């Protein structure tokens, strides 16, 4: 059972949310649909009941880590693959779910599935970069931190770039490299922002990468050297 954590201070929450996700994205109506194809009507009462099903019995205006674990299971997500991120507060939950018109785990599953598909399209790259930046801020140990723990970064990368994502195989190899070295303990913002673009540009054979003229963070030069020396096993 995950340990309980205190709610984040309002200033910390505000800092974590900057830069914010594009306003146009947050104002979109939910893409969740009923089985009949009609838009499922949002119910504030249903949203409240849904929140209550995960809420802390002692602090009923928040969902603690144990409740978040239950929420993940209701969404058929593995909670162990997600970085520890404290609690969900009722007020912020109401605002967020109201914007996307989601009031149940089934609707949230549909919404997340549709959003994941949409965000893989090249036209969504700027918006996805905002989401990745938000994820970095969310994972910081405090609002002033300039880096996040390595294990947390790798877990969040796995969420943002799963196996089925175009960059999934690159992310997997990069994380394999990071796990194999004892030199790297944290990932800073520059490394976090640069990694996806680096994965896109270097390709699978790394021929386009020249460490002598590279402007990438040194960590990426080390990765290329490791990847060339440790090629993946041939596909079965």
What does this structure look like?
It comes from Catenaria anguillulae PL171. Residues 1-43 are annotated as: Disordered. Residues 42-228 form the DCUN1 domain. The chain has two domains: 44-119, Recoverin, domain 1 (Orthogonal Bundle); 122-229, Orthogonal Bundle (Recoverin, domain 1), CATH 1.10.238. It is 51% helix and 4% strand. The longest helix is centred in the middle third of the chain and has 15 residues, at 105-119. Residues 1-37 have low confidence and may be disordered. The chain contains eleven helices and four strands. The chain has helices spanning 10-16, 23-26, 44-52, 65-74, 90-100, 105-119, 125-139, 150-160, 168-180, 189-202, 218-229, and strands at 62-63, 88-89, 147-149, 186-188. The protein has 236 residues and is mainly α. It has a two-stranded antiparallel sheet with strand order 1-2. It has a two-stranded antiparallel ribbon with strand order 3-4. The two termini are 39 Å apart.
Topology:
Layout: H1 10-16, H2 23-26, H3 44-52, E1 62-63, H4 65-74, E2 88-89, H5 90-100, H6 105-119, H7 125-139, E3 147-149, H8 150-160, H9 168-180, E4 186-188, H10 189-202, H11 218-229
Antiparallel strand pairs: 1-2, 3-4
Number of strands: 4
Largest sheet: 2 strands, antiparallel
Strand ordering within the main sheet? 1-2
- Distance between termini? 39 Å
Number of domains: 2
The SSE string, one letter per element, is: HHHEHEHHHEHHEHH
CATH architecture of the largest domain: Orthogonal Bundle
Structural class: mainly alpha
Quick check: average pLDDT?
79
In which range does the helix fraction lie? 40-55%
Poorly predicted runs of 5 or more residues: 1-37
CATH topology description of the largest domain: Recoverin, domain 1
What is the CA-based Rg, rounded? 20 Å
Q: Strand share of the residues?
A: under 5%
Given the structure, what is the number of helices? 11
According to CATH, the homologous superfamily of the largest domain is Cullin, PONY binding domain
Shape call? elongated
CATH class of the largest domain: Mainly Alpha
Kindly report the oligomeric state of this protein.
single chain
Organism: Catenaria anguillulae PL171
Biased composition (Low complexity): 9-18
Region (Disordered): 1-43
Function: Neddylation of cullins play an essential role in the regulation of SCF-type complexes activity.
